[in-house]
Amino acid sequence: MAAPKEFFEYVDASAGQFIQRLGEAVAIPSISGDAARRQDVIKMSNWLNAQLQSLGVDTKQVELGTQELQGQTLPLPPAVLGSIGKDPKKKTVLIYGHFDVQPAELSDGWDTEPFTLVVDEKSGKLIGRGATDDKGPILGWLNVLQYHHQHGKELPVNLKFCFEGMEESGSEGLDDLVIRESKPGGYFEGVDCVCISDNYWLNTRTPALTYGLRGIAYYSIHVSGPARDLHSGTFGRTVHEPMTDLIALMSKLIDREGNILIPGVDDMVSAADAEERKIYETLDYSIEDIEEAAGAKIALSDDKVQVLMGRMRLPSLSLHGIEGAFSTPGAKTVIPAKVAGKFSLRLVPPQTPENVTPLVKQYIEDEFKKLRTKNKLEVEYLHGGRPWVEDVKHWNYEAAIRATETVYKRKPDLTREGGSIPVTLTFAESLGVNVLLLPMGRGDDGAHSTNEKIDRSNFIEGTKLLGSYLYELAASQ
Amino acid sequence: MAAPKEFFEYVDASAGQFIQRLGEAVAIPSISGDAARRQDVIKMSNWLNAQLQSLGVDTKQVELGTQELQGQTLPLPPAVLGSIGKDPKKKTVLIYGHFDVQPAELSDGWDTEPFTLVVDEKSGKLIGRGATDDKGPILGWLNVLQYHHQHGKELPVNLKFCFEGMEESGSEGLDDLVIRESKPGGYFEGVDCVCISDNYWLNTRTPALTYGLRGIAYYSIHVSGPARDLHSGTFGRTVHEPMTDLIALMSKLIDREGNILIPGVDDMVSAADAEERKIYETLDYSIEDIEEAAGAKIALSDDKVQVLMGRMRLPSLSLHGIEGAFSTPGAKTVIPAKVAGKFSLRLVPPQTPENVTPLVKQYIEDEFKKLRTKNKLEVEYLHGGRPWVEDVKHWNYEAAIRATETVYKRKPDLTREGGSIPVTLTFAESLGVNVLLLPMGRGDDGAHSTNEKIDRSNFIEGTKLLGSYLYELAASQ
Questions:
Q1: Which 3-state string (H, E, C) describes chain B?
Q2: CB-based contact, B447 to chain A, within 8 Å
Q3: Closest CA to B438 of B463, B410, B409
């Protein structure tokens, strides 16, 4: 059962209004990682809750407790749960999304105000923080609901919604909620499959379905020594400087080819055989695509398969920065007393935060001993999530493939993704049902970056895709 | 000719008022490195100018042009020149000091508001940004002037003053002024010697005179690649990450023992012979003093001579931080597009910024080539100053030694200092006269650090020292 023609026409005719609503959502700076913006994340929860209600969805906002952040005790932003349709003859689909966003400041290098959605008529880009991650996709679902609500039409499936406001900060509080509501009698009882639209096409051309995600394990290496910051003139070459030790440790984590130097971590993952390499060879994706998305010719290798596997089936390690050191413009002659180096691992099966963390800690502690410094070390595991790989032969994927063919007139790439959406695994394990990642945006959207955007066509055709997917689900066995 | 007894009594009796005036000076947050505080540095220039005038000094404020800072064109804070006494039979002494300060925020870890002078009656500490670096010493000179002004007494020498507001930011604009005014017919014509009170005793017990300073050369290593910040999930292990390259480069600058790994830099400095080692053995200074000042047992060696030479007669290298990377609390999964690693070298004769900079650039460029990365490198020299060593047999030093014996009843340590006051060399070279560094504060004052302080006794006895020095100068041949 394909979606009605009228639905597609409605979406095209309503594009202007849909974009206006996206602008309203982007205007709320719901940065979950910034204590000063917590009220905006809560405001965003309220806004979304009201939108769902106005479109006929039964909702409830669920308090998730409190959090210590930047020296304050803050309420976690309430999750928004929703339900529409209770027909036992229909499938029940659980939709997940998140309404919080990454930090963004004009001074980070944005060309336009990050929290004002800019519609670039020439390029077709809708530019603003959260446009693609993940407010655009959430609003895609609202668009689908609006069509049915305004036309008094029943949805082809029953829908449950689970929208959270802490995804960019480790989804704090969500796991407990999902696990609790997945139990018999819980809010998610009777869910047949899950759909998450919170990732991206590989490139800028080919729609994709995603059946794998890397996990993550985020660490902070704390090195401390002096009781206070010291003057580098008075103390340079007299004391063990924490920065010297920290930089030495951080330099021992990854080599120039991207190999992880922590013993045992890369080794956990089996090498790809010829058959598996073929999967990566056939994807509509090239070194040029990666470099276009990165904005520079900086691919680690000229071998497409190697680079794609580096993203999809191998772990990675990135050095994010240092807390406590001099970090602003200018030339401050400080010896920082206490510094924390931040890095994260992206994990693939069979890696988990539980099995890599002991290796990470042991290695850093061993390397620290080799420095024979009198400073102090603490390796802190900040947060993480396990990797996930799904069965692509399931009707959930088949429905999404048919919907893609209807809207985009082509088969989607079937991909594994480099990023982490830890809640994916929580849904898969708690509900025991198939989980589909159905991306709306393109590979060059710049999620987490400056000038984040979603293309107008991806937002509008993506809305059609989400609607079509529900109709195809209803038709599948 | 010793200072009159009445002077010492006056200083003791006026201590409360002197401390109150220091509080006024500390309350002006004259941070030269922060564009937002530029007006406060200018305010401080005006305050000091008015104070000098009220004490009978002829002054003028000298505009030094403009500066590009943090994207703004700012006026440099005017220097304050002053002159009192024109007796051709007296010596003429040039006094230098600076009225700008390092940045300070309560959130850096201060126990009290940095720009409110706190008088801790129990410990005798006067706590606040600039208390010791360098507002305390400047106000010491005002205290001496006040005695003579209120009592209608002539000073034993002619005085010239040169106070600047950019010392913590490379003394921008000052060199030109000093060179210009040192020429025949200039403001500093006829100066017989220079005194600078802008450093510290080695320890907390023994007054010191300082006859040597290390120079400095400050660098920024810029590594850039992607056109924008990238998501570590999507791009981890696919591209050359600027942070990976930068950390690799920064790790190759210094080893765990404090040795500088840039070829040729340490080698420029001759090894100390037995006689020279003896100088360091006899100084009233211990590993415990260093560790007490640092607040932790983190000395690089158990050999006192080695540690003291590390501070006084060897170059050092400190890693200060990274601009452009993630630097705040939390766990941001960013691959920064453009990062700048900041480090500085402290230099000793015969090193100069001019002769070490080519070595620094060549080495970093060579190491960068070894990384075979596709990112881009730029090594930037930000600012610097040459090292300086003075003749301690000169009457300028002899007067200061006698003054120290009068006030503190002991001989001062004769020291070389690890820090850099580039203007010292400018005065020495431009005027061709002897320059003395006459410290007021103690080794644990925490200049440039949190909870900066000057001890009440150092401020008050230090005022007596400065006054006595002028009388001893008048008596010397």
A1: CCCCHHHHHHHHHCHHHHHHHHHHHHCCCCECCCHHHHHHHHHHHHHHHHHHHHCCCEEEEECCCEEEECCEEEECCCEEEEEECCCCCCCEEEEEEECCECCCCHHHCCCCCCCCCEEECCCCEEECCCCCCCHHHHHHHHHHHHHHHHCCCCCCCEEEEEEECCHHHCCCCHHHHHHHHHCCCCCCCCCCEEEECCCECCCCCCCEEEEEECEEEEEEEEEECCCCCEEHHHHCCCECCHHHHHHHHHCCCECCCCCECCCCCHHHCCCCCHHHHHHHHHCCCCHHHHHHHHCCCCECCCCHHHHHHHHHCCCEEEEEEEECCECCCCCCCEECCEEEEEEEEEECCCCCHHHHHHHHHHHHHHHHHHCCCCCEEEEEEEEEECCEECCCCCHHHHHHHHHHHHHHCCCCEEEEECCCCHHHHHHHHHHCCEEEECCCECCCCCCCCCCCEEEHHHHHHHHHHHHHHHHHHHHCC
A2: yes
A3: B463
- Nearest residue on chain A to B133, alpha-carbon basis: A231
The verdict on a CB contact (< 8 Å) between B295 and A228 is: yes
The model's pLDDT over A23-50, given as tens digits with 9 standing for 90+, comes to: 999 999 999 999 999 999 999 999 999 9
Alpha-carbon distance of A219 to A360, in angstroms, equals 9
Question: pLDDT of B176-194, one tens digit each?
Answer: 999 999 999 999 999 999 9
Say whether A329 and B323 touch across the interface (CB within 8 A): yes
pTM of this prediction exceeds 0.90 = no
In whole angstroms, how far apart are CA B302 and each of A241, A244, A250, B306, B308?
16, 19, 27, 8, 11
Give the SS3 label for residue A22.
helix
Measure the CA–CA gap between B44 and B50, rounded to whole angstroms: 10
Tell me whether residues B247 and A250 touch, CB distance under 8 A: yes
Is residue B445 part of the annotated active site? The answer reads: no
Q: What is the pLDDT of residues B196-255, one digit of tens each?
A: 999 999 888 999 999 999 999 999 999 999 999 998 998 999 999 999 999 999 999 999
Active site residue A176: no
Cβ partners under 8 Å of residue B205, min gap 6: B284
**CA B281/CA A284 separation, integer angstroms:** 72
Q: Taking CB atoms and an 8 Å cutoff, what residues of chain B touch A294?
A: 225-227, 230, 235, 238-239
B258 touching chain A per CB within 8 A: yes
